[in-house]
Every structure is written in C-alpha cells, then in structure tokens.
Amino acid sequence: MRCAMSDRRSVWAAFLALALLCLPAVAQGHNVKPVLSGKTFQFVLQNGLQVVVVPDHRAPVVTQMVVYKVGAVDDPPGISGLAHFFEHMMFRGTKAVPGGGYSQSIARSGGDDNAFTTHDYTVFHEQIAKDKLRLAARLEADRMAGLDLSEGAVMSERDVVSEERRMRIDNDPQALVLEQAEAALYLSHPYGRPVIGWPDEIRRIGRVEAENFYRRHYAPNNAILIVAGDVTPEEVRQIAEAEYGPLPARELGARVDYAQPRRMGESRIVVNRKDAKVPLFLRLYRVESYAEGAPGEAEALEVLARLLGGDTTSVLYHRLVVERRLATDVSASYDGYARDSGQFSIRATPRPGVSLEAIERAVDEVISTYAHHQPSKVELARAKAQLVAGAAFMRDSQFEMASAYARALAVGLTGFDVQQWPARIQSVKPKALQDAAATSLNRNEAVTAYLLPRP
Questions:
Q1: Which tens digit of pLDDT belongs to each residue from 63-81?
Q2: Which domain holds residue 317?
Q3: Are residues 215 and 99 in the same domain?
Q4: CA neighbor of 67 nearest in space, from 89, 49, 46
Q5: Where are the alpha helices (DSSP H) in 251-397?
Q6: What is the helix (H) or strand (E) element at residue 37, kind and residue range?
C-alpha cells in the first residue's frame, strides 16, 4: 500500500523540528521573487501555488512535498473518509501516467514516495536524487490536474480503503477505543470523525462524489510545494514554473469554520472486547491549540505533557510504574498542531491484578498535585531541555525539515511563531504549568475510556 494514514496525535514531534528553523512571511501576489531568510526561501506562482525552498547541501538528494489544504474536516456530511480516500486515489494513475506508473517511475529513479492524511491537510512526498527533481515535479503536477477518476478506479480504491479500515481500526481494540473517545470528545465538530472514515460512509463514495471533491480541493491555489535538499531557490523556481506553472487555478470549495459546542460534563466509555489482550486506561482532554490559544497556553501544555508523561523519566511513569508498581506503561502527550482545538491525552496499562479504577485514581492524584502546586525548578528545566533538544536533533533529517514546514503552513502558523518557539518554551513559568493543570485539564472537557478484555 502506497499510503500511510496519520492522525492528529502523531504529528506533534514534527512541530518541534520546525521550531529551530527560520521561516519568513509568505510573499503576497504573483510574479514575486524569492524571499531570503536564513536558509529558507519562498515565492508564489501566478496560479497561486505557494513554494518553500529549504536548501540542505549535505547530500545530493531532495525531498519534495505537496501539501493540499484539505483534510478530514472537509469531508462532506455523510461521506467521512473522502479526504483519506483521495490520498489513495492519487496513486491510481492519470491518462499520461496510467496505473501504478507514478510510483514505478519514482522507484526506477532510486526514489521513495508516500503520503499521509490528517484532519486538516493531506501531504504527498518523494525523496529522490537531486537530478530527478524535475521528474518528481512533472509527476506531481500531472496528478494534480489529470487524475484518473473512472468508475473502475474509484470502486477499486474504495474497496482498498475499506480493507485498510478493517485491518488498522476494526481489528485493533485500542484503535477502536480511541476512535470512540474522540467521537465523544468533539461532539459535533468534525475532529470527532475518524480520518479514515466510518465504515458505512466509506461505502457511499462513488465516482460523482470523487469528481466533486477533486475539483473543489485539488488545485495549485490550494497547495503548498516544499522542496528541501541539495538545490538552490533558482533551480526550484525554474522547475516549479515549468511543471506546475501551466496548471490553471480553480474555484475552491470554501472551508467551513465549525463552532465547538460547550461540554457540560465528562463523558465515560467502557468497551469490552474479547480480542483485547490487556486493559487500557485512556483520558482525552479538549484543550487549546497553538492556533487558538492565548500566548503561552500551548507552550505550557507542551511542557506539562512532557513533564507528566513524556518518557521514563516523567512524573507519571515514576509514580505509577516505578514507585507504586500499578502500571507497566504510562504516557502523556499534547497535540496542539491543529486549526481548531488541540488534544491532551494520557494512557496507562495496568499491571496484572490492578484495576483501571486504581490507575485512574493514581493519575488524578498526580494531576491534582500539579493543579495545586507548582513544579520544582529541576522538573521544569528537564522538561524544557528535552523538548528543545528533541527539536535540534530532528533537524538532522531532511524529511523532517520538509514535513515541519508542510504541517506548520497547513494549519496557519506563521514564521514568527516558528522562530520564537524555543524561546517561548524556555520562558514557560512554573505558574503557567500549574494553571494548565488546573484549568486546561478540566474534567468537563474530558472523556475517560476503559478498555477491558472480555472473558
């Protein structure tokens, strides 16, 4: 399978990689010249395609990414999974390059290709030798405008997506519990719909629905091209103008700004599954994101998640696994990388004989401690250092650099936000963490889920 579906929880680390990079403001209008800021250049083609160039001359390879500002939130009512379905369809071929010719051409040139979908955007990427960048651009431009949406292609790929759902979600009890918890967390907001789609709604995808979605969202004026690697801005501009430039802009479907209903109380879910191997405690909170939160809110949640459950040095791990021996594993994470609300999650697996109720009480005791008391200087300094160091280490990956730019621009973050992220993390005060634990980790904004093996 040529795709890798992604959810919102899996992308937070890429934002860390982005934090130490430099991104200038996007130039407005057409026929603009590249804008230089450190190692990053930007320009916009006349058809509206935004282009970002990140030179990296350590090896003669390049990473090309095309980001479409369309994701699962843009699925029409009653047809969830359509954005993810198009992640698949883009590998089905065009009139010029039919069938699997796209991936075959990349592979014959020694390259690698794949894609992923989130609630807010869809990304297609290739890593290839620098002298094959023109080929990769030609192939991407071709499927941006000339995708095969015949009845046979659509029906065949719909079956593939349905099978993927059975394998990755329906046969995985923990994935099913997460899906149910998110549906309860977000109420009527489309973040509560799974990226891959609900089974019955996937089956509603047909040729007409596919053509309408493609026409409304897959266009150069709804896309961002990112090229990172052994290239110059002028080289990328020449290729972009030659391959993407002739594509016409299209009238786009307007993105809906969804209201987020107030939650009036905590939701609780208990799922019994005979295919569950071990019990699972899951707690999700709906919290502010980087895009929506007040200055410093998201950074405080980022540090709090790292301090509570970032790794085996975290507070939850030490208390539940090492000290009290209640759990075999526990973790916490913050996903603030979204256009609308973010998500704070806690997971724990109990030791044999330990109840999920005991796990929940222990987790709540730790959260209550930080809601009433500020963290120590040592705890806070360690969490900050881990976050900033992680961002620095991820810069070594050309793919991660390109991914970071793709994901940041897709959800509306600015260059200033990106440049200031390490400093903002370092400036988080102990009181901000206490406020985050007391206010953001609000049980009215939470879903608690138990997964229990059925005898």
A1: 999 999 999 999 999 999 9
A2: 267-453
A3: yes
A4: 49
A5: 297-309, 315-316, 356-372, 377-394
A6: strand 35-37
Backbone angles phi, psi at 444, to 5 degrees: -65, -20
238 and 350 in a single domain? The answer is no
Of residues 290, 294, 284, the one with CA closest to residue 363: 284
Q: What's 41's domain CATH number?
A: 3.30.830.10
Q: Tell me if 126 sits within 8 A of 112, measured CB to CB.
A: yes
Joined tokens for residue 296: 């410093």
Q: What is the domain count for the chain?
A: 2
pLDDT digits (tens, 9 = 90+) for 414-453: 657 766 788 899 999 999 999 999 999 999 999 999 999 9
Distance of alpha carbon 388 from alpha carbon 384, whole angstroms: 6
Tell me if residue 44 falls in helix, strand or coil.
strand
pLDDT at 45 over 60: yes
Residue 87 designated active-site? yes
Same domain, yes or no: 238 and 103: yes
Q: Are residues 210 and 89 in the same domain?
A: yes
Main-chain phi, psi angles of 142, to 5 degrees: -65, -45
- Please tell me whether residue 86 adopts helix, strand or coil conformation: helix
Element (H, E) at 420: helix 415-426
Give the Cα separation of 363 and 357 in Å (integer).
10
Average pLDDT of every residue of the chain: 90
**Distance between CA atoms of 79 and 86, rounded to whole angstroms?**
13
> Of 210, 243, 276, which residue is a domain's last?
243
Distance, in Å, from the CA atom of 387 to the CA atom of 384, rounded to the nearest integer, reads 5
Domain end residue (candidates: 193, 227, 243): 243
Tokens representing 99 are: 């069938």
* CB-based contact 301:342 (threshold 8 Å): yes
Same domain for 220 and 351: no
- As a whole number of angstroms, the distance between CA 280 and CA 131 comes to 49
For residue 81 the two structure tokens come to: 């999974």
Same domain, 196 and 285: no
Taking the CA atoms of 288, 294, 300 and 306 in sequence, report the sign of the dihedral they define.
positive
For residue 301, tell me if it sits in a domain. yes
Structure tokens at 242: 């030659």
Give the pTM.
Answer: 0.89
Identify whether residues 211 and 339 lie together within a single domain.
Answer: no
Domain membership of residue 248 (yes or no) is no
Across 168-182, average pLDDT: 97
Q: Let me know if residue 252 belongs to a domain.
A: no
From 87, 164, 299, 400, the catalytic residue = 87
Asked whether the beta carbons of 287 and 341 are under 8 A apart, the reply is: yes
C-alpha 419: how far from chain center: 20
